[in-house]
Amino acid sequence: MNGSMTAAAAHKQYEEGVTAFRRHIADPTLREQFGREMDGFMRSCALGVWHADGGEFTPRHVEFYNGIYCKGNPVPSTLYWELATAVAEYPGFYEPPFFQRMRRDDKLFGRQTARRFVDLLTLMMLLYAAVDDTVSEAEAGFVNDCADRLLALCDADGLAADHPALKADEFITRRPAGAAQEKKAEAVREKAGEKEEEAASPEEPEPTLEELLAELDGLCGLEKVKQDVKSLINLVKVRKLREEAGLPVPPMSLHLVFLGNPGTGKTTVARLLAGIYHAIGVLSKGQLVEVDRSGLVAGFVGQTALKTGEVVQKALGGVLFIDEAYALASQDNANDFGREAIEVLLKGMEDHRDDLIVIVAGYTGPMEKFIHSNPGLESRFNKYLHFDDYDAGQLMEIFRSMCRKNGYSLSPEGEAWAEGALRTLYEERDENFGNARDVRNLFERAVARQADRVAQLSAPTREQLMELREEDLREDGTA
Known about the structure:
The chain has 479 residues and is mostly helical. It is 57% helix and 6% strand. The chain folds into three domains: 7-199, no CATH class; 209-387, P-loop containing nucleotide triphosphate hydrolases (Rossmann fold, 3-Layer(aba) Sandwich); 392-473, Orthogonal Bundle (Helicase, Ruva Protein, domain 3).
């Protein structure tokens, strides 16, 4: 059967629905976690819907499955036989980790995020049930069962509902094709559109160059990186002025190599650079597309070129940020598919040199070997930015900043303990030192322990909801 909805349209509805919902998550850490985990969770739900249906499996299912991703996340490139196997071996529905966090936040702050997510999930699962323009009783039953399981967890937490839950039954259609079937399939799409409109908020205006530069200046540490970025901006500005004045401009590559350990702000600076270059007219869109080897390389002959090419297309008008890029160049296997990805990248950089900037990042030693492993890489990547490790004082300032941005405060004992712990972390650092990532892990674990503690209080005050104590920061939870 030829379905009336294209995979591109399904992807658009999925991305718009998820993006709109994400904007309404109040907690920044939860918002980031949701954005990171939602695609994988929704793909598992699509497997469950199609497993429940037990009907004909077609290439359209593959196209729809590979369309379940949001901007900035890796794009799946599953093959027909891989997806058919995954559907047949579907392990069962599970509560996603971000939903546990939603329930906890809703209980503490009286929100409705978890219940509203169940409505979003129901609509998205119906969207993928309608891949063949039908929603069978088995599919609707599976969708309702998944929603009921999550709603039962909300009920157990005492989270009141401010609206009736959406049910899948009204969208059931039968197998024979016809006007009634199409009407039902259209109803699924219209309902999804209604929910997206409810959730959507006005588009935020693009940040100005001044705002982006202020955000860059506000980053902790990275003084040399800030100076190098501003020099790059000045170089580009003067180049554009010379072009407008009819003066010759020498060839210049804006592709960059970021060298440094994890957690030193490389991704943040790449995002700001994308916006800055857009603000000064170098890039048409200014988005950041972040991938690693797994987002570019497939496991079968011919698939890597397609996968890498799709990522390049997605990044056009913005910055493609490749973390741990040295993993693309395997010195042990001359036939490694990573080399194919490099060739596709180099061609994409040449074909779109006026509207694509590629930033490769990773540890200093491996990255230098990677750049020198291919003449094409050497000629295109000739600007290096070095990201130094944060010292103990900077780590503490990052921790305080995370507290401020997320509405938490440190007790005097908590602040003293955090300063000592981060000083020890820095002084005893080894090759596994994660810089700001370690600080974020400390913060997130402290927030989780604080939530467990505060949830036991009958009527916590605003100050109690905000305060992080020493026992919240300690691994063992003791003061």
